[in-house]
Amino acid sequence: MVSRRIAHLSDLHIGAASEEASEWLVQAVLRSGAERVAITGDVTHRGRAAELERFRRTFAPLLERGRAVIVPGNHDRLGDDVEVELMPGERVQVSAADGLWMVRCNSTGPHNRRWWDSHGLLTPADLRAAVEALDAAPAGATRVLLLHHHPLPLPEEAVLERLVSRLGLPNAAELPLGLELLRRVRHRCDVVLHGHRHAPAELRPFSCEAPLRVFNGGSSTELQAFRVFDVDGRRVDTCWIDARAAANEPPRVLSRAA
């Protein structure tokens, strides 16, 4: 099987991020040689149609020929609610090509129309649909699960988030069924990609018997960096790419892990 490269972008917040930061990312992804681009939510900052249009203009080179695989985030449900534009149809869908079996799970909900209520939604039906979608993967395919909200606990990133967590409110919490989702997909999935938290992270919640790897992409526009994944069947290697490298230079690898 031929090795394929996936770039993981997340939390672009188009409308708040500078156009320069977005353009650098696009050019760096193009130079990285990624055949597929996973974008795990918060594409827009206020869920405005104008922000979505700006995203489409800036990221057009990555959106051509269906190279980008997108799930919405809670910010995309604000304002004009562009969630349905980013992922019309069922809450769980499959994007398959070139030995990649990418399952998209929409972890947003109607409550995300309110700025304060940023936490995600994952229903038992979503879990069943994700399992069924992964079970349908052909033999030898690299199986990737995409969603926006974090399925495992991650540190709060602001004083207000720490406060609401101490009050027992769900606003900054992980998906209530997130761990159950990972338990069900651990033998069915090779890598899980998500966003929501702006600080990147990699977690391996289970033993070496089924070492499922869960990656939070962070905010790509803030970091001016992103992970790429070189996949070949069940093998997944990853490294960070610096988007600030000069346009006439090859992308700079920040770190590498297998």
Structural commentary:
The chain is an alpha/beta fold and 258 residues long. The chain is 25% helix and 25% strand. The chain is built from eight helices and twelve strands. The chain has helices at residues 19-32, 49-58, 60-63, 83-86, 124-135, 159-166, 178-185, 220-223, and strands spanning 4-9, 36-40, 68-71, 92-97, 100-105, 142-146, 191-194, 201-203, 213-216, 225-232, 235-242, 252-257. The strands form two sheets. It has a six-stranded mixed β-sheet with strand order 3-2-1-10-11-12. β5, α5 (124-135) and β6 (142-146) form a beta-alpha-beta unit. α5 runs parallel beside α7 (178-185). The longest helix is centred in the first third of the chain and has 14 residues, at 19-32. It is globular and about 45 Å long. The two termini are 18 Å apart.
